Amino acid sequence: MPLASKANGLDGFDTVLEFNGPLQVKHLENLVELQKDKTYDYAGRTNTGEGRFTSGECPIYLTSSAFFGNVKAQAKFAFTAAPMPYYPDVKGAPQNSIIGGASLWVMGGKSAEEYKGVAKFLTFLSDTDRQVYIHKSSGYLPITKAAYEKAKAEGFYKDQPYLETPLLELTNKEPTENSRGLRLGNMVQLRDVWSEEIEQALAGKKTAKQALDAAVERGNQMLRQFEKTAVK
Predict the structure, then answer these.
(1) Contact (CB, 8 A) for 222 and 216
(2) What span, in angstroms and rounded, lies between the C-alpha atoms of 111 and 99?
(3) Are 50 and 66 a contacting pair, CB within 8 Å?
(4) Which pTM does this prediction carry?
(5) Strands (DSSP E) along the chain, which ranges?
């Protein structure tokens, strides 16, 4: 399912948001319904609810694989990870998931010597052994296939299979136009708008359809502002 047109923005800055379709509305309606008896309980934005899992208050928590470091250090119980849930009646499901996380950017207009330093730093970070170490200790995904293969060859996933789960999700199928990534201007602000409207639905102040329509409308205004200033 698309998040936005133009391959989620990868094929053009004139992209528009498209996450207010029937499936997305159905999903939000399900969460609203589940929250009525606290089968699902919204705990705030980003990772603010992590403590409710590590304390044993809630048995299932949906979050980043990078949560591994925290749960390993704080949880006093056995735990595991499972793939993201999906609706089996959706054509092609489950499709590969889109990787998340922060990015490293290299700016233009610097000297050749400075770029040599940048190259050395990126080479340092992507070193196979270093990536394996970071992956094993934090739960962050290795950024190279070589690092994944080395961790696998060392038998790491036999003892901690939950850290292979996100890797299998990312590679379970060839990416489609809607699952190879995203590029949306003002992404942080877009996420805040989406969160605000989702919270309105969960609080019973808007229907799921009203909330998603509002998020799309407000988000598209931000995308048009970004399009005017983006370098094409």
Answers:
(1) no
(2) 32
(3) no
(4) 0.88
(5) none
Phi, psi of 4 (to 5 degrees): -150, 165
Burial of residue 31, with CB atoms counted within 10 A of its CB: 0-12 exposed, 13-18 middle, 19 or more buried: middle
User: What is the token pair recorded at 219?
Assistant: 């988000």
User: Which regions of the chain carry the CATH code 3.40.190.10?
Assistant: 5-96+172-229
Rounded Cα distance between 164 and 21, Å, is 32
Question: What does the pLDDT look like over 23-39, one tens digit per residue?
Answer: 999 999 999 999 999 99
Among the listed residues 111, 112, 148, the one whose alpha carbon sits nearest the alpha carbon of residue 131: 148
Task: Quote the pLDDT of residue 231.
Answer: 65
CATH number of 5-96+172-229: 3.40.190.10
Tokens of 130: 């270093």
Q: Is 124 helix (H, G, I), strand (E, B) or coil?
A: helix
* pLDDT, tens digit (0-9, with 9 covering 90-100), for 179-195: 999 999 999 999 999 99
pLDDT, tens only, 35-91? 999 999 999 998 888 999 999 999 999 988 888 888 988 999 999 999 999 999 999
